Amino acid sequence: MLIGGMVAYLRKLPPMLLKLLKNRTIFSVYLEPGDQSIQWIHDYIIHSKNHHSLKQFLLSTREIEKKDSESTNKTEINYQPEVKLAPAPGIHFFFYKNMPSWMVFKREIIEKDKVFIGNHDNISINILGGSKTTAKSLINDAYLISNKKNNNEVQVFIASYGSWKSCGYKLARPINTLVFDDDLCRNIIDDANDSINNKEWYLSMGIPWRRGYLLYGDPGNGKSSLVMAIASAFNVAVYSVNLASQTLSEERLEFLFSEVPAGSILLIEEIDTVFNGRNLTPNQNSTGPSLGSVLNALDGVAASEGRLLFITTNHKEKLDPALIRPGRVDLQIHLRNASRNQMLAMFKKFFPHSQPSEAKAFADALPEYSVSMANLQQFFIKNRACPEVALQNIGELARKQVSLK
After folding, report:
1. CB contact set of 389 (below 8 Å; sequence gap of 6+)
2. HEC string of 239-256?
């Protein structure tokens, strides 16, 4: 009420006097459209002590598992909606360090051929009696509130209309839930950790402070799962970009890559579906930036530092050598179909009380590298009743693999 009355009174002043008074007493910050700080400010206002004064909200929901569910019905899906509120377009008043402040929020709907593409938000923050130091402090506090890290979740951002947009949190993936040969996960974590924690050495050697990984191999062998497990291990966010997006220009691509924060993962999935060999333009069925612009965005003068890059592909042979040369991609990891050791480990994972002879009989029944880890997991889920059932039905898995060839 106090701020609202003050604003109403100020509007009655002569325009020149009002402008002079505003310039002398009000410090304003205009947030760049698409900048991550917009989400930070939204979260800050919602979680501030004055949020009860807000009267208009934007509402979004997602389903989450009920906690301490008392249901004994195994056929019931124990989920409930999680409601997330954000300030709606308009003017929202709040206090920051006892200084009257307000946010002006305008939203423009972006459409192409009458199809919704995204939102273009314009936001300004105004602080009565504020300063540059006050504004920086507010943005920093908003960042801390918005990015409270939960060790059980990984925040995922996607490229949307030329800017990064949070698409929520995914459950963290513990490393010990993945089954790979030769301590593969641990080796990648050690390599990434060595890069992240040696910034000064990289700078002293004149080497860009970043690390790149190529995950390649047949589909269904854990490329995306491995990236989520690495993100979970470091408790960092994942920034995922679809290079075939119709809304991604070459200029915005370079901007997007430069905006990936240090200590984050930049993920480019299935890049072979976009570029084929030395074609400098996207495949005939794809749209988006050219190969040259992607290479420049990855390690050009504006490229971000301190991040980890993961590129996934089912067909390494289709990639331009320039895309995966050292400096852009430092380690290439081949994720093959299930090895004998992986078959044994998967059997023991699903049937921890089974006999060693049963696991051996299962692995002996399938040729090594003949079945993907995804199909193997699906088989165990379907036949998880007991190890005997899995052994009896193993022919089903073998026949399925033959039909896929």
Report:
1. 383
2. EEECCCCCCCCHHHHHHH
**Looking at the structure, do residues 297 and 326 belong to the same domain, yes or no?**
yes
Q: Would you place residue 310 in the very low, low, confident or very high pLDDT band (cuts 50, 70, 90)?
A: very high
381 and 301, same domain (yes or no): no
Distance CA 356, CA 344 (A): 9
More confident residue, 294 or 77: 294
Pairwise CA distance, residues 375 & 338, whole Å: 10
Residue that has been written with the tokens 């839930």 in this structure: 177
Question: Which positions ≥6 away from 156 have C-beta within 8 Å?
Answer: 166, 167, 168, 169, 170, 237, 238, 240
Number of domains in the chain: 3
Q: Measure the CA angle with vertex 277, ends 314 and 227; round to 5°.
A: 35
List phi, psi (to 5°) of 288. 120, -170
Residues 274 and 208 in one domain: yes
- In a domain, residue 163? The reply is no
| CA–CA distances in Å: residue 196 to residues 78, 152, 306 | 40, 21, 6
Tokens of residue 245, six digits? 């997006």
The candidate with the shortest Cα–Cα distance to 266, out of 295, 300, 231, 292, is 231
Query: Do 330 and 350 belong to one domain?
Result: no
Token readout for 211 is 């690390």
Q: How far apart are CA 60 and CA 54, in angstroms?
A: 17
- Between CA 14 and CA 21 the distance in angstroms is 10
pLDDT in tens, 219-234: 999 999 999 999 999 9
d(CA 345, CA 351): 10
382 located within any domain: yes
